[in-house]
Each structure stands twice: as C-alpha cells, then as structure tokens.
Amino acid sequence: MLKQIIIYSIMSIILLSIIFSLISQYFLGLPYGWNIEATNSMVPKLNPGCLIFIIPLVGQPHVGQIVAYRPPFYSHYIVHEIIKVLPNGYITKGINNPSPDPWVVSKTWIKGCVPLIFGRPIAIPYIGYAITTINTLAGKVYLLSLLFAIYGVSEAVSRRSIKIRRSKNYSVISVKSVFFGLFILFFLIFFIVLSANTILTYAYWTSASIPLTLHQKEIGVSFKIGVVPSGSNVSLILPITIRNFPLKLLPLAVLFYSNSSNLKLVGPYQILKSVNITFVLNVGKPGYYSSRVGFLLIPSVLPYNLMEQIFEFSPILFIIFMSLFLSGILVLFIWIIYKILDRYYIL
User: Is the predicted pLDDT of residue 144 greater than 70, yes or no?
Assistant: First the structure.
C-alpha cells in the first residue's frame, strides 16, 4: 500500500510539473517549469541536453544563484549564474564561459531561478535530447509506432482484462479502465505535441510618419514587424515551409489568434504545400503598438470555421478541445479493433 502511494505521488508530481510547464511557457510566455539546456555555457553544473526546472524568483537575487532572465532585445531566456551585485543590477556569467555577459542585468529582466538541492540544481540529464527528437517529424512517427506496438503487446498478453498478482489474490483491471488509461495517455501526448507546435508570442510595431511607399513587408515567426507608415494598412508576408509527409492525408489548416483587431489573417486558410501566408496590419496613429498573437498549423480534421472560432477565442481552449477530440477518435478506433478481434477470435 505504501509503495503504491509513493508511486502515485511521484507520478502526480511529474504530471503537475509538466502541466505547469506547458501553461507557463506556451501560454504565459514565462520560463517556469521544465526547460531544455541548449548550450554548454553552464558546464559542469548544467550540461547540454539536460532538463532543468525553473521556479519563480522569491526575494532578492544573490551571488551564486542561477537565474533565468531575458533582455528586452532578446527573444529567449538566458540561464546563467550571478557573480556580482551592482547598485543598478547584476553581473551574470555562464560558468564555462571565458567572460561575463556583456551587459548589466536589470532585476526586471529576471523572471525565475533554478532551485538547488544539496548545492546541485534540479536537472535530469539527456531527457532534453529525447524531447528534441520527439519534436521532429521522424520522432513523432517513432513515438506513435511505439504506442501502437505497446498496445499490440498488451492485447496479445491479456484476455478482456489485465490481472495483477497481489500476494495470493488477484485484482482485475477492467477493459474500461484500460481504455480510460489509453484515453488519458493519448490526451497528454496530443496536448504536449499541439502545445509545442503552437507559437504564442507578441507582435510589435512602431507606427511612424514616413512616406506611404510600404505596401507589404516580410516578417518572421517572431512577428517583430518593425517601423511601418502610420494611418495605413500593410500586408505582412510570412513564408511557411512544410514537409510533404502530413499532406498525404489532409490539408493543413492555418489558425491565427490576435487580441487586437489591428492584425488579421487574410489567407490562405488551408494549405497543401509550402506557401506565403498573408496578414493585414492596420498600423494606426504614430506610436508604439503590441498585440498578443498565436499561430498554429494543424491537419484539417474538423471544419475550418469551427477550429478557427475556438482558436480565435482561446488557443489553450483549442488545444484542450483538440486533444480530447483526437484522443477520443483514436481510442474509439482501437476499441472497434478490439471488439472485432473479441468477436471473431475470442480474445
């Protein structure tokens, strides 16, 4: 009994930490939760490919603390150690770097820190490499193949139920429990995959009184639009390069979210190949503007209008909805196969 409680507690903590990470990073733009260490700047404390845990910073930063900060001119967070405290900020440095970072880190830049246990940061080695691999097309194919293989093996071993020996008695896990467990597993997988492929960021632009010669502008995924002429509409071009693998099944729906009516998707709404996506920006009066935006390419498994409305309302609600829907479809497909085998082969 105690062993089961410990196992369930550990699994619950891991699951909650993953959900916490997804919400904070992909929907709030904060570094909290599990992060992949991508460089060797913090060797030997943090090695490339390890998974590190970042928590909100409580109190004043101090020398020796590993903090996560993002300068306003950077698009990603930096995880380095504080080596000196100044009246106007902090000097940070990667342990393995030959020199400190070339700026004074303001306290407002610092969003979190890496907690220490017995003087060592919380980190899981090599897991980051596995996550990076899963995010590739081949990695997703291997993962799905592994899941189906696990299901096949479990069906070959069990007959209608799975029996687990406990002492001299047997406890039975019903078929419904097995399929419910599969549903939860598929939901988590789809939730993680969709979250990892959803771009949530900010669009920035400065409306200035310059000659109205700019009618279109090519932008990157970061949506840093730059300086645009005031009082006009500008077409923004976003080149999208996609692989051919998913196109063999369904076209990809182009979903876009913005909390400002100034920035809208023009089209195309569905694509079959690499193409330029066009947005229109109402640049407004002279001044500085920003808009929360979201962007996702997803196979058109449902009518586009339905997916578009849910995504425009809330990207996180859309991800939850699609994870539930896809998980239900997959579990239903497996259940149909199970019933056919059960009927004709007497499992």
Answer: no
